Amino acid sequence: MTIEMSHPTSALTIVENAGATYQRAELPDRIQAAYTTRFVSEALDADRSAFHLASGPTVTPQAGDVVVARVSEILNHKRVETPESRKAILFPGAIIMLAYGHRYAADQFLAHVPDSLEPCHLVAAGGVAGTVTEQHADMDDPTRIEPLGLLADESGIVNLSRFAPYSLNPVPALGAPAEELNAALPGRPTVVAVLGTSMNSGKSTAMATLVNGLTNAGLKVSAGKSTGTGAGNDPMIYVDGGAAKVLDFTDFGYPTTFKLDFEQVRSLTVNLVDAMAETDTDVVIVEIADGVYQGETARLLRDPLFQSVVDRVVFAAGDALGAVGGVRELQDAGLDVAAVSGVLTSSPLATAEANEVLACLGVPVIDTYELTSAAVSTALLPQDWRTS
Question: Where on the tree of life does the source sit, at the highest rank (predicted)?
């Protein structure tokens, strides 16, 4: 139930809604929605009168909560990605709709969800708000924003998860027996994971070219990203490569996956694969963000449930040392590495260096764009698939 009453000393309206008390305000006339908020934006467009802004000292943002904010100073991010994945130019004073989220990006920002509606930052162009606490030396300071309030409706504060088209189904618990793990996704298609040494190692491009190569071989391929920071760039690249179905963690209501409980990370990865594994799908390819030493990724690689779902791995690296170290790390974790690709292959010399060592580990280095070849890409599938 919603109870409204006039504030005795101001024109503010005080609202008690879903057990919380806050200051209520009407929505601004013009709001630019971001990619992470695309499903909420659809609901807003359908019935704007059902929503309002919630603000005041009692409002504490949570990851995934939708915030409407004014751009106060344009610095690093000069554009915001729209729900259609267009890069909209930002202007001072623009009103944008984002989602609060934690961000881990070694080449950009470390950011966290603040504990109030204090001025904070646009920490990712895909539409993530947070407070930057660390940044790469080569990065400009983050664009500054002033939250006007959290989006709310009669059910309370709006979180992305309420409007997401997918939700998490139960998966085998940590420590579950092998037979339960193996039965997690019965009848699933072949699953290939794409990982890398770090962000900007060429994972997404390698994944898109692999999608293209398998599609050129006449296979139906689904592609998705299970961890990272919400943005439309990667899903659009997968579409361009020919993927029949594309999803990412934002389709499950997460603006980012940094600082999620590990149980959520493993469940999200398996549920993403399951959602893409339609009956006529031949191969599912899933990208795991950041590098193999990033906390959630490092633990995921050694999770028996992840290993029971993923058949092979393609690894993207930026140099020979990273390629060799990454392959050894993956093999030590018990994963089957099919090939190395990525930024490394832009350099013939670095490729030769990596090949010399990786040959002893049984892993070839393949130029990123050679993966568009049907013969090259299908050779990376499991042996039993190639001989069937």
Answer: Bacteria
Give which of 305, 294, 213 is closest to 260, Cα–Cα. Answer: 294
CATH number given to 178-386 = 3.40.50.300
C-alpha 50 chain-centroid distance:
29
Rounded to the nearest 5 degrees, what angle is found at the Cα of 269, between the Cα atoms of 265 and 270?
A: 120
**How many Cβ atoms from other residues are within 10 Å of residue 19's Cβ?**
7
The Cα 229–Cα 226 span in angstroms is: 10
User: What pTM does this model have?
Assistant: 0.92
Other Cβ atoms less than 10 A from the Cβ of 155: the count is 11
Q: CA 301 to CA 19: how far, in whole Å?
A: 41
Could you give the residue ranges of the DSSP H alpha helices within the chain?
38-46, 160-163, 178-182, 203-216, 233-241, 262-276, 295-301, 304-309, 320-333, 348-358, 374-378, 383-386
Break the chain into its structural domains and give their ranges: 2-163, 178-386
pLDDT range class, residue 6, cuts 50, 70, 90: very low
Q: Which pLDDT does position 18 carry in this prediction? A: 63
